[in-house]
Write a structure and sequence with these properties.
Number of strands: 0
Distance between the termini: 63 Å
Structural class: mainly alpha
Order of helices and strands: HHHHHHH
Largest sheet: none
Helix content: 55-70%
């Protein structure tokens, strides 16, 4: 056991020094602390997507602005609109729960993969491991969200009324990524169908479904560009010459 205080041995400080301080520093040196921090943030995100998605799905049903009061109990709507909204509610509720579970499952799998990565330095871990995987994860979540919105728009178009899409607001993730935000502008602002505009609505629904794949492709391209940039930077760093002062020792031979 290593001593903590100079010149003397003191049981309490020595024990805590060896059992707490030294293991902490060991986890810092081998990178376990940094891995634990990043992995658990991702794991908390997966829980938030599952629990938050389910909570939002139930919460958006009720209240003055809830789907039930706005569509099923709205006296201004016809019986056909209410019937269509009822079908849209059932399908939308099920698809919303599935979408929340799917986003959780994708995040969980990517988190487990990240946990298995070998730590070989903080810069390498952050720029060569975490960020590329983060780009991939965001792209996969964006794909699920856009596909979900496209499917719900298709449901609303087919029933000719409103469809329940409480997770639609998660599509705002597209607005934070340059280049991909243009595809986000193709998504509808509201999930409402009308047989009088069937051709326009079906076109919007199919556009959303197709855009989901384009969003996924865009994020994978972002990842490839980032990895290529990292390789260029790494090559440039290795190319930088090492400066040294040459010293020559000459032996003088006297005849």
């Amino acid at each position: 056991m290593e001593k903590n205080l100079p010149f003397i041995e003191f049981g309490i400080t020595d024990k805590n020094y060896n059992n707490r301080v030294l293991p902490f520093l060991g986890n810092v040196d081998n990178g376990d602390l940094f891995k634990w921090y990043v992995v658990n943030i991702w794991r908390l995100l997966s829980y938030a997507l599952l629990i938050g998605g389910i909570a939002i799905t139930f919460a958006e049903l009720f209240g003055d602005s809830g789907f039930i009061k706005q569509n099923l109990q709205n006296e201004a709507l016809s019986g056909g609109k209410k019937a269509g909204a009822g079908i849209g509610l059932v399908i939308g509720f099920v698809l919303s729960i599935i979408a929340a579970w799917f986003m959780y499952s994708v995040t969980k799998k990517r988190t487990d993969q990240l946990k298995e990565e070998v730590y070989s330095g903080l810069l390498h871990y952050i720029f060569c491991v975490v960020i590329p995987r983060q780009i991939t994860l965001v792209g996969e979540l964006a794909f699920i969200i856009v596909l979900y919105i496209g499917l719900m728009m298709l449901v609303a178009t087919l029933v000719g009324s409103a469809a329940y899409a409480p997770l639609m607001s998660l599509g705002e993730v597209l607005t934070i990524t340059p280049g991909v935000d243009a595809l986000g502008g193709l998504l509808p602002n509201a999930i409402v169908g009308d047989y009088d505009n069937f051709d326009v609505n079906i076109q919007m629904a199919l556009t959303g479904i197709i855009a989901s794949v384009l969003v996924l492709i865009a994020y994978y391209i972002y990842r490839e560009i980032f990895n290529y940039a990292i390789r260029i930077v790494t090559a440039l760093i290795h190319f930088i010459p090492k400066f040294a002062i040459p010293l020559a020792i000459r032996n003088r031979t006297e005849n």
